[in-house]
Design brief:
The chain has helices at 6-33, 79-84, 86-98, 117-120, 129-146, 174-177; strands at residues 48-60, 63-78, 151-158, 165-171. The chain is α+β, with helices and mostly antiparallel strands. The chain has two domains: 7-36; 45-58 and 66-177, no CATH class. Helix 3 runs antiparallel to helix 5 (129-146).
Amino acid sequence: MYIMDGSFGMAISTIHFITLLTAIVIVATAAITTMPTPPAAAQQHTVHIIKDATNSYTLSGSSSSVGSFDTTYRIAGERSAIRSAENLIITTITEDFSSSPTIGYIRATGGGLGVTGTEATHPNPFATPQQITERITSELRSAITQAEGQHVEIKCDFGMSLEDMRCHHGPLSQARSG
């Protein structure tokens, strides 16, 4: 049988605890120092979306009606960031545009305010929300795919008809990108 006195046993327990603690610190330090750092390309870059919307109303007597309207979205940032955020950009813009009070006034064809002979034969000259979303998605995907340069701006002008919904791209000057 092995019997120790209290003070000697306490000293051995303390030594074991310190040894164990030191080993944990060494392992943790080794793990932290050997973790790979993300390459510069994996760092996140910011994409900015700016919206500018205008619309007018015509008041006649005690009623009002929608006059003209258009909405412009500008997407700015590094091309790689814009391309990697493509689906989020499209979702953000289509959801925002869908909540616009003028969405129900977008014509499927033509941008005129009056009813022409062709439009009079159609029961509903207005585009459906699905048609509008498909058009926005198509225009954005095309502009994002075709964008060139490190810093780009994509400008989408959405007017009063599906035909008036266009996106195009161009370089973004360094002064404006910061």
